[in-house]
């Protein structure tokens, strides 16, 4: 079974019965007893986490969901892990390389590719990404002149 990190995508917690928390390199299941939300924050009460100290040990941990329960995205949207390994192709330069990873930097995402042995970061937000075709594992970009030589 494959897992995905939960970052900023909205989740309907009514349909989620458990999450996984990474602890010492392993994913440990935690079953949700109840939840509440206040504004843009969700508060989860897990089974068998009954003290402030137990809860404090989980604070700041990354939560993971099974890919089978994460929400479907709209056309043209993607989860970071879905596109790693895709070919990145520029309109004028042609194939640039394979996508190594998607870096989450605050509210922004950056595509990291290996372009001729050099790491290049392409912002997802903005005019650079022209299309993402999951069936062809292809990301088409339009980079300004000189972008790759920076």
What does this structure look like?
This protein is mainly beta and 150 residues long. It folds into two domains: 3-66, no CATH class; 80-149, PRC-barrel domain (SH3 type barrels, Roll). It has one helix at 52-58; strands spanning 3-5, 18-23, 26-38, 41-46, 63-66, 87-90, 94-105, 108-115, 118-123, 129-133, 138-141. A hairpin with a 4-residue loop joins strand 10 and strand 11. The longest helix has 7 residues, at 52-58. It is elongated. It starts with a strand and ends in a 9-residue tail after the last strand.
CATH topology (level 3) name of the largest domain: SH3 type barrels
Number of helices: 1
Helix content: under 10%
Indicate the low-confidence ranges by residue numbers: 1-8
| CATH superfamily descriptor of the largest domain | PRC-barrel domain
Determine and state the CATH class of the largest domain: Mainly Beta
Rg calc: 19 Å
How many distinct folded domains? Answer: 2
What class do helices, strands and sheet pairing give?
A: mainly beta
Strand order of the largest sheet: 9-8-7-6-11-10
**Mean pLDDT, all residues:** 84
């Amino acid at each position: 079974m494959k897992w995905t990190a939960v970052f900023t995508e909205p989740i309907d917690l009514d349909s989620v019965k458990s999450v996984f928390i990474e602890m010492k390199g392993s994913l440990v299941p935690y079953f949700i007893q109840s939840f509440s939300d206040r504004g843009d924050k969700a508060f989860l009460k897990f089974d068998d986490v009954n003290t402030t100290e137990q809860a404090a040990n989980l604070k700041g941990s990354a939560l993971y969901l099974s890919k089978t329960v994460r929400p479907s995205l709209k056309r043209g949207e993607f989860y970071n892990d879905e596109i790693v390994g895709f070919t990145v192709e520029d309109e004028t330069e042609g194939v640039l390389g394979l996508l190594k990873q998607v870096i989450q930097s605050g509210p922004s995402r950056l595509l990291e590719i290996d372009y001729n042995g050099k790491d290049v970061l392409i912002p997802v937000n903005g005019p650079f990404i022209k299309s993402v075709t999951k069936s062809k594992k292809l990301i088409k970009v339009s980079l300004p002149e000189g972008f790759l030589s920076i």
